[in-house]
């Protein structure tokens, strides 16, 4: 039997029992749908973050008081002596010590939780304008003479309260009242769009700190070797602190650290989605087993006409592969639509970093994967069918 005849025979077997085939395909559809949407969103976020960090702020070094990036801070906070040690390193343009935490913000009797960033205003504006390319939607940047003033992230001002917060309005943070002097233009990064920026000197009582920092941002002069300077900073801080429990990360390293966290999370979620695919594979295997039982006489006739075991095996294996492929095509389409819908609604909600990553590699890879899953699921039932004795099958045994 020719290859095209085998494929035609397998296709006719699927269309002959549309209801049974459709129910079998649904299991594959659900699994592939979940896998495509999760991979698309997971890699979309990673690619966006990597692109933003490495292209905007490539001359930035971030220093954190812990080696466990993304986890709880286990090291001691930085002090003024650590900041001064960093300033001794050649090739540095600016050093911005700060404190990043969370506070309740109140506006017109409404309360919300927001990221709170305490900084030195003049250094902050220089780094965030020149290195990160941020700009204001309205108002002005903080200056070193400001005391009870603040800059709000785009989402805090526009979407957090029933009424939009405008420049000149006053908000309550902790026990203090602050005048809004500026609103940051939307960046797509929730850490900035949902943040409040305050002068360190007049606001450190919010966190009961003084001359204490949990993040230091360093900008490097144009043309300098960022990696070498990060190593020099590490040596200076080791001398100042007397320990190595801190992190000095270039933009590239920071992107890698964030991506590693998202990669683990994506793999975990895809693993969970794979359970649905496993259920679909069991469904294909069961369908092929029932199909073989129902077509015992057809198998006997084919064998009586000279069909070999490999031919019988090929018919049922390809049929199972088609079931997997059809489920993969439908699941991929719906998975892409769901990922795009999540991206759309996330953007409306102010989470612009949530992107759907769709590529030919993802689509073709998933379709091949679903086809292979179908083949593997149908192989063992098909092998048992190929070994049937033609005499027994024609007798109806």
TrEMBL record:
It comes from Methanococcus vannielii (strain ATCC 35089 / DSM 1224 / JCM 13029 / OCM 148 / SB). Its main location: membrane. Keywords: Cell membrane, Membrane, Transmembrane, Transmembrane helix. Residues 21-235 form the MacB-like periplasmic core domain. The keyword Membrane applies. The chain crosses the membrane at residues 21-45, 261-287, 312-342, 362-380. It holds the Pfam family FtsX. Residues 272-390 form the ABC3 transporter permease C-terminal domain. This is ABC3 transporter permease protein domain-containing protein. GO terms for molecular function: transmembrane transporter activity. The lineage of its organism: Archaea, Methanobacteriati, Methanobacteriota, Methanomada group, Methanococci. GO terms for cellular component: plasma membrane. It is found in: Cell membrane.
């Amino acid at each position: 039997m020719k290859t095209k005849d085998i494929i035609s025979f397998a296709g006719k077997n699927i269309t002959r029992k549309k209801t049974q085939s459709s129910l079998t395909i649904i299991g594959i559809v659900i699994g592939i749908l979940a896998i495509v949407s999760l991979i698309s969103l997971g890699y979309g976020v990673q690619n966006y973050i990597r692109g933003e960090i490495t292209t905007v702020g490539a001359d930035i070094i971030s220093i954190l008081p812990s080696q466990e990036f993304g986890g709880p801070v286990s090291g001691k906070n930085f002090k003024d002596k650590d900041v001064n040690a960093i300033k001794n390193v050649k090739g540095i343009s600016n050093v911005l010590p700060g404190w990043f935490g969370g506070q309740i913000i109140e506006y017109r009797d409404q309360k919300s939780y927001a990221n709170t960033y305490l900084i030195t205003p003049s250094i902050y504006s220089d780094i965030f304008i020149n290195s990160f390319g941020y700009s204001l939607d309205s108002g002005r940047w903080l200056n070193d003479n400001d005391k009870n003033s603040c800059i709000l992230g785009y989402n805090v001002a526009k979407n957090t309260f029933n009424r939009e917060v405008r420049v000149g309005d006053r908000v309550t943070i902790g026990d203090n009242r602050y005048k809004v002097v500026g609103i940051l233009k939307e960046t797509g990064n929730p850490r900035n769009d949902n943040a409040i920026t305050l002068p360190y000197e007049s606001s450190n009582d919010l966190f009961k700190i003084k001359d204490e920092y949990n993040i230091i941002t360093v900008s490097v002069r144009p043309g300098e070797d960022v990696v070498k300077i990060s190593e020099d900073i590490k040596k200076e801080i080791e001398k100042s602190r007397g320990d190595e429990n801190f992190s000095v990360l270039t933009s590239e390293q920071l992107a890698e650290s964030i991506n590693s966290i998202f990669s683990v999370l994506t793999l975990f979620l895809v693993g969970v989605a794979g359970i649905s695919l496993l259920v679909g594979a069991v469904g294909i295997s069961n369908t092929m087993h029932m199909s073989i039982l129902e077509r015992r006489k057809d198998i006997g006739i084919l064998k009586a006409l000279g069909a070999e075991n490999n031919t019988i095996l090929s018919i049922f294996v390809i049929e199972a592969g088609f079931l997997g492929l059809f489920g993969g095509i439908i699941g991929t389409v719906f998975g892409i639509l769901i990922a795009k819908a999540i991206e759309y609604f996330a953007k409306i909600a102010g989470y612009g970093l949530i992107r759907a990553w769709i590529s030919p590699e993802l689509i073709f890879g998933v379709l091949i994967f679903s086809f292979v899953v179908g083949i593997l699921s149908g192989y063992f039932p098909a092998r048992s069918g190929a070994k049937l004795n033609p005499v027994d099958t024609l007798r109806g045994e």
